[in-house]
Design a protein that fits this description.
The chain has 203 residues and is an alpha/beta fold. Helices cover 34% and strands 25% of the residues. It has one domain: Formyl transferase, N-terminal domain (Rossmann fold), CATH 3.40.50.170. It binds 5-O-phosphono-beta-D-ribofuranosylamine (GRF). 5-O-phosphono-beta-D-ribofuranosylamine (GRF) binds next to helix 1, strand 5 and helix 6.
Length: 203
């Protein structure tokens, strides 16, 4: 199975997927990485791993629809079974989401449905939350609103700061994203209607 990963920045989650692939634990192959930012460090991670790295800067398109049309073309050239969003910081149009519906996963730094959107760590701390974490979810037209596939919880300590909390959550992201991708590629995790279904037959 073939995976295209979309990024905008550092690409530490991309790296976790690349590492899983190198240990034969991804269940498929990352065939391309696409970034809307030409200077994203994740593009270098892709090249270093011998993966095709594509910069598709959004500034060069006059509308969201035009950009997403171009993005669809690039993605479809690679015939992916799965498109994994890994820190891709753009809102996708309904046309994009519909085109790949059921084949789009995202990683989000909160225990969804809590803290959709940005600045999740600061908001959890400001609320005095006791727990925080990371979620892998299917992408639907509702931003950060699609059904959750897998979550990891971290406890918030009294002395946690935004930076320490982010670090703890990211460590969990790097653990759960490769697992969710593998389950999806093995057909054990699916979006059926509005719900996630698991084939939980023991391996
Ligand atoms: C991660 O925290 C992810 O949850 C969010 O964006 C961040 C991307 O980090 N969607 P990286 O580029 O994978 O290091």
């Amino acid at each position: 199975p073939r995976v295209v990963v979309l990024i905008s920045g550092n690409g530490s989650n991309l790296q976790a997927l690349i590492d899983a692939q190198s240990y034969d634990e991804l269940g498929g192959e990352i065939v391309a990485v696409v970034s809307n930012k030409a200077d994203a460090y994740g593009l270098k991670r892709a090249r270093d791993a011998g993966i095709e790295a594509v910069a598709l800067p959004h500034q060069e398109y006059e509308s969201r629809e035009a950009y997403d049309g171009a993005l669809i073309k690039v993605i479809e050239r690679h015939e992916p079974d799965l498109i994994a969003l890994a820190g891709f910081m753009r809102i996708l149009t309904p046309i994009f989401v519909q085109r790949f519906f059921g084949r789009l996963l995202n990683i989000h730094p909160s225990l969804l449905p809590a803290y959709q959107g940005l600045n999740t760590h600061a908001r959890a701390l400001a609320d005095g939350a006791r727990e925080h974490g990371a979620s892998v979810h299917f992408v639907t037209e509702e931003l950060d609103g699609g059904p959750v596939a897998l979550q990891a919880v971290v406890n918030i300590a009294a002395d946690d700061t935004e930076a320490t909390l982010k670090e703890k959550v990211q460590a969990r992201e790097h653990l759960i994203y490769p697992i969710a991708v593998r389950w999806f590629l093995e057909g054990r995790l699916q979006l059926v209607g509005d719900d996630v279904t698991f084939d939980d037959t023991p391996l």
